[in-house]
Amino acid sequence: MNSDTINHMAAAIRAAILAHEADIESLDREIGDGDHYINMKRGCEAITTIAEELAPLSAADALNKIGMKLLSTIGGASGPLFASFFMSVGKTLKATDTTATKDVALAFEAGVQAIMQRGKAQAGEKTMLDVLIPVADTFKQLAEQGKSTKEIATALKLVASEGLESTRNLLATKGRASGLGERAIGHLDAGAKSCEVMIHAVCDQLLAQP
Length: 210
What we know:
This protein has ten helices and no strands. It is mostly helical and 210 residues long.
């Protein structure tokens, strides 16, 4: 992984988020604050505007710069959470000074843990973590087993979709949805949907590689 790959993935994520505007907005209107899609779109566009600045950087420094950009760009709760993710991933990669699959998996796990700490949340609370935690666990496990990139990407798409679906019947205990009580049951979480879309976008790019 290098800055070129990061820019390519960022463009793919932006396209995927734009393509799922109706889905994400609909979910957020049902049980969220109604501004999640706007913030996600703003964040994606902010990253693409600094593509030239990211190009000469190492993967670790590029990811840290993305985190700082998101922190100053995205409003609401999403900004600090995603910023913490990218900055933690960058910091972890910088410490290992490698982008081998195992190390990327460990960095991804560190990024998810940063979201957990910043948001004071865990799996089972009807948030993006219901997608991110199982994805991180599976990524780490498959990387340790020496699975190929395509095998990992295929598995992570499935895990992300399963994580999203798991939010449907959960009782929300974080964010605006937590005030709805049982009325939130039966609805998917918008943040989890956004994460599923982004993970699918990245995995699809990996699967398309020769």
